[in-house]
Amino acid sequence: MSCNIAAALAENGAKVLLIDADLRHPSVAKKLNIDGDAGLTHVLSGQASVRDVVQRFWKPNLHVMPAGPKPPNASTLLNSPIMSELLMNALQQYDYVLIDTAPMVVANDAVIFVRKGGSLVMVSRRNQTRKRDLREISDELDTLDMQVSGIVLNCAKENKKALENSNYYYYSTQSEKRSKKRRWLKK
C-alpha cells in the first residue's frame, strides 16, 4: 500500500521519500525489485549515510530508502536521535515522507512516528486482520491518546447492492451499464 501511495503522489509531481521502517520483516525493496542490501539499518547504526542508501525509483521525484538487514534492536534504532534527525531533514527536502512500519499487531513502531508529528494510516486486509486485533490496537491508541488519520481496507468484497444504496454505481460490463442507463431513463 505504501508503495502505491508513494507512486501516486510522485506521479502527481510531488517529491516523495518512501522509507521501509519495517525492520523486522522488510518488504519494500522486494516489492519494488530494488537492491535492499543497504538501507535504514545502516544509516541508524552509523554505517552509511542517507545519500548512500536512498535510491531513485520509477520517477525522478520518487526516492526509496530500503530497510537493509534485520537488526536485533529494531525499536531502539527507530526511536533513536539519528532517526529523529533523519526525519527532520527528510521533511525539509520532500513534499511527502511515507514510512512503512511493522504491523501494529507485531510492534508499535508506528507510534514512534506519530509521536514525532506524523499521521497514522492503518491498513487492514479482509479475511486476514482479526477484529480482536483491531480492537486491541484501537484500545492501545486510545490509551496513548493517538488518532488514526485514515483506514485502508484491502481486498474488500464488492457488494453491489450496498454500493447502489450509497449513490455510487459500479458497472462490470458495458451491457450492464446500458441496461442500467435505460432503467434510469424510464423513471
Please specify the SSE layout and strand pairing:
Blueprint lengths: L1 H10 L4 E5 L7 H5 L7 H5 L5 H4 L1 E3 L1 E7 L8 H5 L2 H13 L2 E5 L8 H7 L5 E5 L5 H13 L6 E5 L5 H6 L8 H13 L1
Parallel strand pairs: 1-3, 1-4, 5-6
Antiparallel strand pairs: 2-3
How would you characterize this protein structure?
There is one protein chain. The chain is an alpha/beta fold and 187 residues long. It has helices at residues 2-11, 28-32, 40-44, 50-53, 74-78, 81-93, 109-115, 131-143, 160-165, 174-186; strands at 16-20, 55-57, 59-65, 96-100, 121-125, 150-154. The strands form 2 sheets. It has a 4-stranded mixed sheet with strand order 2-3-1-4, sandwiched between helices. The chain has a two-stranded parallel ribbon with strand order 5-6. The model is unreliable at 167-184 (pLDDT under 50).
